Amino acid sequence: MADKPARGLADVVAASTALSDIDGQVGRLSYRGYDINELAGNASFEEIAYLLQRGAAPDDADLAAYEAELAAGRELGALAVADLAGIARRQPPMAALRSLVSLASADDPDSGSNEAAANQRKAARLTAQQPVLIAAYHAARTGRELAPPDPGLDTAANFLLQLSGSKPDPRAAEILDTCLVLHADHTMNASTFAARVCAATLADMHSAVVAAIGTLSGPLHGGANEQVMLGLEAIRKSGGNPLDAVSAQVTARLARGEKIMGFGHRVYKTEDPRAAHLRRMSAELAQGSGDDTYYRMSRRMEEVVFAEKGLYPNVDFYAATVYHYLGIPTDLFTPVFSASRMAGWTAHVIEQHADNRLIRPDSEYIGVSGRAWVPLGVR
Ligand code: ACO
Description:
Blueprint: E1 20-23, E2 28-31, E3 34-35, H1 36-39, H2 45-54, H3 60-73, H4 78-90, H5 93-104, H6 116-141, H7 155-164, H8 170-182, H9 190-199, H10 205-216, H11 224-237, H12 242-255, H13 273-289, H14 293-309, H15 315-325, H16 333-354
Antiparallel strand pairs: 1-2, 2-3
Helix pairs in contact: 2-6, 2-16, 3-6, 4-5, 4-6, 5-6, 5-10, 6-7, 6-16, 7-8, 8-13, 8-16, 9-10, 9-16, 10-16, 11-12, 11-15, 12-14, 13-15
Bound molecules: acetyl coenzyme *A.
């Protein structure tokens, strides 16, 4: 008989990885040994994607070549383009991305290969493509032409350009770039685990990424950032002083045993280091926006949840207001997360394929045993 499983696989070490590491007791996160606090604001998303996917920090020439690969990868595949309008009409954003990434595999020249070099090329293309797919989806559903990418802009600036149709404010692009760095990888989170399970069957990178996108979409994982914003909007709309409304509604929800989105974490027992950077950026953007209500409401919510439950905000909490102040539509928050995490997912597929063994855990049987089957017609 198998042992009792750890509920939700809590504390189970499910894979070995050289990509990222968390110390949940002290609140430390590192990518390939570099502390996230040193990377945020000092490394670009392109450098981090390269670091994760190719194994070491790039030098100038490496980075220029990688950026050229990304620029070439911003061209969408014919099948995805052909189906975009119908998908944008009928599917919400994360479901649309799941479909579009799957369609993109048809036009990827390396789709039939799991070789290391092919995987690296696919990882760069998928990383380049994801923000373009999000902007293309938004353009299609709002009846706009997608602005062409600008080869002189990085991933974050290009995304804001293609999303809005106009060149972004440089500081806004810088802040989004830092968000992409902060979300790029995070050990064995649910979507990355899903990607690795899929890749470990020797399925291809696109399949693994499609599994990851579906897994990220849930409100207990990446979908929480959208829920945070919707919650803040609902509280603000309820009228009265918004800070008092936060205190009253959050206290009441906790008393009913409800969860507050954007709080709590399986691994961090203290503050998630990414939340501190996001809080700072949210404060900066709020100040510049002329209406810092959502930021102040978030601060109040943080105080109430900590006082009542001792829970800290996770990465999704302040990401919500950062994206809001950047002008990103609320239902695209989780897609933006996916654009960043694409760097990590693809790096994990590369790592899994490089040293593979099928991931096939056991289960504890809790059903009835030893029954006699009575054929239909007799029973
Ligand atoms: N609000 C209120 N209570 C909470 C919260 C929360 N956000 N999170 C945990 N708790 C409480 C639970 O009710 C439970 O209390 P109990 O022991 O009295 O029943 C206890 O803390 C443990 O919670 P679990 O859900 O068992 O913890 P788990 O490790 O399984 O879950 C998770 C972690 C899913 C992140 C959880 O904290 C949660 O649901 N948070 C809200 C959703 C969210 O923000 N998700 C994004 C996470 S970050 C990311 O994926 C990018």
